[in-house]
Amino acid sequence: MKTLGINTGKEKKLKENGLALQGTIKEVAINNSVPINGRNPRKLVCTAALPGGELRYFESGNVSACIQPIMIYVDPKDPKKYCADAEACK
Hints:
The protein is mainly β. It has one domain (about 10-90). The chain contains one helix and five strands. It has one helix spanning about 10-15, and strands spanning about 20-30, 40-50, 55-60, 70-75, 80-85. It has a five-stranded antiparallel beta sheet with strand order 3-2-1-4-5. The longest helix is centred in the first third of the chain and has 9 residues, at about 10-15. The N and C termini lie close together (about 5 Å).
């Protein structure tokens, strides 16, 4: 499993300091706008429960394959800032 693209500084910071949640993949969507070697990557739509019990939806970046589970790193102060990282679940 490989995440396509470059990890930004924000993603790195979330992985180091964010709240780690284990997500469940709910949908796999093909990203038709990005061809890579004649194939289209996928985006994963997943859910994870925040510490208060609220179930939230998260979307990954482009990935080459799908695995279960997926790790989601959330800013504890602002859950809208997150990184869905399938690569961390190898």
